[in-house]
Amino acid sequence: MSKQFQFKLVLLGESAVGKSSLVLRFVKDQFDDYRESTIGAAFLTQTVTLEDQTMVKFEIWDTAGQERYKSLAPMYYRNANCAVVVYDITQSASLEKARTWIRELQRQADPSIVIALCGNKADLSARRQVTQEEAKKYAEEEGLMWGETSAKSGEGVSDIFTAIAKKLPLTAAPSQRAGGTRGAAPGAARAGVDLNKQPSTQGSNEACNC
Amino acid sequence: MASETVDLRVARQPLHSRLSPASAGLPGDDIADIEIIREDWIRKEALKRSTTKATKSLNIRIGSFNVNGKTPSQDLSPWLRSLSIHTHSKTGAQMTEWISPLKPVSPFNISTNPIDDKYTLQHEQPLLPITSSCSPSDPDLLVLGFQELDLSTEALLYTTNTLKEDSWVAAVFAGLGEKAVLYEKLASKQLVGMLMVIIVKKSLFPNFDHIMFCSAGAGIMGFMGNKGATAIRVSFTPSTDDSADAKTPHCTVLTFVNAHLAAFEEMVERRNNDFQELSKRLVFEAPTPMGANSDTSNESSSIYKSDALFWFVNLNYRLDLSDVDTRNLLALHSDEPPILWTLLKYDQLKQAIHFRKAFADFHEHDITHLPSYRFASGALKDDLGYDKKRKPAWTDRILYMHSPSPSIGVHQLSYVSHPEITMSDHRPISSDFKIQLPVIDQDDYLRNADKLSHELWGFEDVEARGSPRIKLKSNSIEFGKIFYQQSCQTTLEVDNIGDTPCVIRFVPADIGGSICPDWLRIEPPATLLPAHMSIAITLTAFVSTACARLLNQGPRRIECMLILHTALGKDHFVVVGGEYQHTCFANSLATLTRLTGPVRTSYATLKERKEEQSASVPREAMRLINWLMEHVSGEDIDCLFNRPADENTVARIRECLDTGDELPSPQDNQHLPHGFARTLLQFLDTLAEPIVPPTLYSRCLAATDRNEAFELLDDFPSESVNIWVSLTAFLHYVVQSSPSSASHSPSRRAEILAAIFAPILLGDPKNVDLQSYGISPVGKANFLLKFIQ
Ligand SMILES: Nc1nc2c(ncn2[C@@H]2O[C@H](COP(=O)(O)OP(=O)(O)O)[C@@H](O)[C@H]2O)c(=O)[nH]1
Ligand SMILES: [Mg+2]
Fold this sequence. Notes:
The complex is a heterodimer of chains A (about 210) and B (about 800).
Chain A: E1 4-13, H1 19-28, E2 40-49, E3 55-63, H2 73-77, E4 82-88, H3 92-108, E5 114-120, H4 132-142, E6 145-148, H5 157-172, H6 203-206
Parallel strand pairs in A: 1-3, 1-4, 4-5, 5-6
Antiparallel strand pairs in A: 2-3
Chain B: H1 8-11, H2 30-49, E1 51-66, H3 77-80, H4 89-102, H5 114-122, E2 141-147, H6 163-175, E3 183-191, E4 194-201, E5 208-218, E6 227-236, E7 252-260, H7 268-281, E8 283-284, E9 301-302, E10 308-314, H8 323-333, H9 337-344, H10 348-354, E11 396-402, E12 409-412, E13 416-417, E14 429-440, H11 442-455, H12 462-465, E15 470-472, E16 476-483, E17 488-496, E18 502-507, E19 520-523, E20 526-529, E21 534-541, H13 545-551, E22 557-566, E23 571-581, H14 589-594, H15 599-602, H16 619-631, H17 634-638, H18 647-659, H19 672-686, H20 697-702, H21 706-712, H22 718-736, H23 746-761, H24 770-773, H25 777-788
Helix pairs in contact in B: 2-11, 8-9, 16-19, 16-22, 18-19, 22-23, 23-25
């Protein structure tokens, strides 16, 4: 039987950089020009199958980027195994914002969190304000994964999630799950590391095939 | 509701508390939550849809009487017939006027626990004045519990002798006088010395059926039948002809429990256990299914499976207070409920309910009558008629719980004792209830529930049916000004814009946290929303005393973030905010004496001020005292602190104190003096700390004369000394200026004032076990008396 992993992934970044669009592309392979902006956090799942048949299921939290709701963001990135911090390549200010998020994650999130920096709206390269070199250099300095995407064309989207899926099982040493739903006890269902409160005795729950 | 009456302990549990633990980013068990919320919603919605316009009401009079083995030798009419006809009606009516205005001063009402505040607000049970139009007419149902019918030793072996029962039933009918012909006996149940009799209006006799009985012994080895309980359950079905369009009216289950628990003061744990035991063991066994009918309810069921459950009991709970103190306070009581409330703070049953050791979630109305136990005669009795050797206590009580509305409405109209019936060492007690019942068509209900279950089935299959989608009209809600103790409401509109039903619930930011701050309430906190439907969720801002203690320390702007979780879908954020209006109530002396002006305008500058700039006495207290000294005289002064005052007047005066506006002048309203007196009491009572530091109490009580008492003032903190001196000087003035026509002599007036003020000025620390704490309330009053006499 193939291996199965489950990880919690959170999307962060300034409002309107295309976080929700990225998720929609990744989960449903769709793109909407007119999406209502999220005031809150949306939950979605998507499974990636790697070449070795390992299945990685992402539990994705797409959060609101607005400053006003910033105090709630830690609730969504705590226990996250990975974070995709998005900026818009046509807005240099959005990279600044991304840096702030990354600093916050480095300070406050789980230390083993895998962080990917993602430059979105690559289809609009004519209006580019952030060069690939600049972003890449920053990512290397901070030890982050990096990639450019276009939620609109689909370019680079699955690549970045697949890259994360490949990296995670190695770093995060998650517990294996034979399936299951969101319905399980909170925390227990979140694979990967949960340094906060989950005692190791939760193992028995995870085998449940419900 | 016979076939699907739920356990009251479950029904009363807020839906929200039954859901899985969840928080932002950690949805709980959404599937299980959907199940719970859907089931609850279908039930309520089906009830709503099958409720006819007609309503029914039942007047029930409940009585409890420990007869001490006596045979009936006196007229029982005062106990059986409504208040307006018996001799104590005047006092009774006067006392009930007290209930609402004084409520905040009653023990356990000024709670430090915000949950309690929320609770009282949600479950307000206004006691309607007995003289109003709601005055109970002849009861439809009389439910009477007797204890200690037979004290003989043989009686301890279960007997089937009904002689005693017959004589008491005969006495009851005799007591009903000319009304007796209207009634007949519906049911009775005896367990050794305990007897319960239910008497019903003949015209309603056919409406009661499914009568069931059970009993259980308590006490040593659980079979000594002298302690324990009997219970009777009845189902009431309104007649079809008078319930308009309900062809198959739904029935209401009422359960009555007559209990007698372990005696003796120190047996309080035993009593708590007895209650828990009886709660488990009182079970109605279903009759053996005769024709194995369609009747589904042939399982045995708990007494809690009711729409309303009444316990009337000789509970034997006592007062954890010394004999001297108890009698002393009772002697001062006359007509001052605040003194009874001081006593009731020490009541073991109130304590047991408060700490959830027994009768948790039961409601008992405020007690305004004197203890019902133990009376004596001749040389054995004290001035009030109580046995000199047994400390008086409220041993006889009536408590109840009922399903949340709209299933049933229960209004308690009275709660009194009957001192004129003197044949026993207990006095009988009684209570009138008005039960309001919506008339529901049972067949229609089942049809609706079935239809709804069908419509709402399977939407949790998100793969097949699509994700839930809701939209909020606004993500930001503004209350504007929020005042202390004034609730203000607004709504949050939520639309289900998806094609499937969905379930929404508010979740806290952190697991185990609250979904909103203490000053906010959300109703409903969880619900189902059918496809394309909208709901207006009510948000109520209410700053209780406990909340105000915190908010008074903070900034004017108060704000919080709500997280509305859609099961199997998004979390939506809502910012809720308002402008808190600071108040001098629920504040601290240290803060108030450092303010340069009225609270509302100067709280913000507080930090810059230095300690030594303190005013000596909070200006609010001085303004109240000065007003009273200037405007009160004669008649008014005689009963200044023991007359009810209108809460609105108090709020108006408080607002002037907070803003610095001019105080109302006495020409406005003749009741103003009482309003001011009450404002002063409440101001003192809500202070964060009592004026006298609790560490000094034992020394206060040890002071033997005025000199010693005055010397103690040296050890008071500076902000306490000044207010203490001003207040006691004022009270001294009140005592001295009582008119010659006054109802009490100056020295008695001083004693009464001391008994009212001492529990406030020397308040008990919160959440201590009053018994082990052991500071005598009379000792406190005596200390205060040294300053005001
Ligand atoms: N041209 C282009 N527009 C995009 C792309 N991704 C998102 N958008 C648009 O950017 C706007 C904001 O997208 P949204 O996903 O709501 O951003 P979010 O606030 O970060 O979730 C929307 O109008 C999208 O249609 C992209 O890759 N290319
Ligand atoms: Mg978005």
